Amino acid sequence: MTMPSIGTRPALPGWQADTRHAVWPAVMVWLLLVLMTVPDGLAYDTLDLGIAPESGSAVSRLAWLGLGAGAAGMLVWRSRLAVALAARVNPALWLFLLLALLSLAWSIDPGLSARRLYRLATVVMVCVALGLAGWQAHRFQQVLRPALTLLLAGSLLFGLLRPDLAVHAQTAAELAGAWRGLASHKNGLGSLAGLGLLLWLHAGLTRQTRVLPALAGGALALACLLLSRSSTALVAMLVAACWLVLARHWPRSGRGALALGVAVATAALLLAALGLIDVLPGASWLGSPIAAITGKDESLTGRTGIWALVVEHAQRRPLLGAGFGAYWVPSPGDGNEAGEIVRQLQGFYPASAHNGYLDVLHDLGWSGLLLLLAYLSLHVRDSLRLRRDEPSQADLYLAVFFQQAIGNLSETHWFAVQSVDLVVMTLASVALGRSLLALRLAQRVPAMRPSAGT
Q1: Could you tell me which residue ranges the O-antigen ligase-related domain spans (predicted)?
Q2: pLDDT confidence of residue 113
Q3: Residue 100 has what pLDDT?
């Protein structure tokens, strides 16, 4: 079926809607999820020793190069659709990527920034590629849900067969006996499980799958979430799950009030995030309830001490930061600035600020943090726009936002190239833009308009 032009110009002559060529982009997403979940070289025996490789293995580098080339080829092949899709995707995402690229000019470690920028660009291209072939309204969850379920099933099996590798061996109270499964850390498994549970809950609520598979998938995800003992992941999942249930049963006559409530909740959550890391003068009280909500102590399991040091370091370059991904090196020492925090923490190396908002501030300064806040705000705005025509799909994108926004209060996931959450959030942004593009086209071809109940 030939699609009409957009607006008054014949922008996309010959653009056809089809379900062909859907497998390859999905395979790329699945491979990306595995690469960002499983430790390089399956080196589980070194995780508890705190040994980080200086660079990826040959297999890992080849996989990343292949993903980049494959995704770029897809973008060139369907360049007209790619341009139209890019125009509908959250503009703050592109501005953030541009700022990250420009940060090579002032990065404290340009080589490390360049390597991490390549991974970030690859993730974005793979996610865009998924929107270029075989698209349909539920593509986001239909690709993610089975992939995450397989990773969770593998984690459970791995833990049963090799608990010496799949369970943390440290004796610290927050780690002792906690499962990491196929991931590198318990929080990684917790985040995967929380996302998986949300996807199965959404599938059950919207009848996109039968009851028994939804219950089985949800039970698997819940088991992994509880075994990970990740309190933040649990709280983030509960908040997002409550949103899905509330939105599903909210009366149609009260859509305006619900949208207003989402906007207020978003503003409060983002302000609390800034108050928690104490970067807004006089606003530290905004983050005070977080510890109680997540079940952590007043120091949020030692994170506040790390945050104070990172904030102090970020104040040296307040506007543009230290460069994208340039500070947290694999092996800190006298030759890089990360060695300073190791000395201040008496030999302990946190490897991140354990707060996604703070790490963006540290990497790209207030310019980057404001773009992050704009990106999240526009994601919520666009989701509310989509909700007028595709309410259940928009509700899922909002649930992903709530889950990610809360998870980043104590872990670094925003634009972190080592985190599978980067794939999920970027894919949600692209899928949201693709849905809005489809609705724009439906204005010219009413028969293509999706059902309001989907």
Answers
A1: 219-373
A2: 93
A3: 96
What secondary structure does DSSP assign to 191-258, as a single string? Answer: HHHHHHHHHHHHHHHTTSS-HHHHHHHHHHHHHHHHHHT-HHHHHHHHHHHHHHHHHHHS-GGGHHHH
Average pLDDT over residues 164-179: 80
Strand partners, 179: 167
Residue 179 phi, psi (nearest 5): -85, 140
18: burial class by Cβ within 10 Å (0-12, 13-18, 19+)? exposed
Eight-state DSSP code of residue 60: H
Contact 229, 186 (CB under 8 A): yes
- Residue where the block lists tokens 């190239």: 417
Identify the CA nearest to 192 among candidates 143, 148, 127, 236.
148
Query: Quick one: tokens of 212?
Result: 């028994």
Is residue 313 helix, strand or coil?
A: helix
Mean pLDDT of 325-336: 78
Helix (H) or strand (E) holding 39: none
Q: What mean pLDDT do residues 306-326 have?
A: 87
DSSP state of 268: H
pLDDT score of 365? 93
183: phi then psi, degrees, rounded to nearest 5: -80, 175
User: 282 Cβ partners below 8 Å, 6+ apart?
Assistant: none
The predicted pLDDT at position 45 comes to 76
Question: Which of 70-84, 100-114, 251-265, 341-355 is least confident?
Answer: 341-355
CA-CA-CA-CA torsion sign (244, 246, 251, 252): negative
User: What pLDDT shows up at residue 425?
Assistant: 95
Residues 6+ apart with CB under 8 A from 72: 125
Q: Report the predicted TM-score, pTM, of the whole model to 2 decimal places.
A: 0.87
Runs of H (alpha helix) within 315-351: 338-344
Q: Checking phi first, is residue 75 left (phi over 0); if not, alpha (psi -120 to 50) or beta?
A: alpha
Q: What percent of the chain has pLDDT over 70?
A: 85
Please state, in angstroms and as integers, the Cα–Cα distance from residue 409 to each residue in 60, 251, 281, following that order: 30, 32, 18
Which residues neighbour 385 within 8 Å (Cβ) at sequence distance 6 or greater?
394, 436
- Does residue 61 register a pLDDT over 80? yes
Q: What CA–CA distance (Å, rounded) separates 273 from 286?
A: 8
* pLDDT exceeds 70 at position 296: no
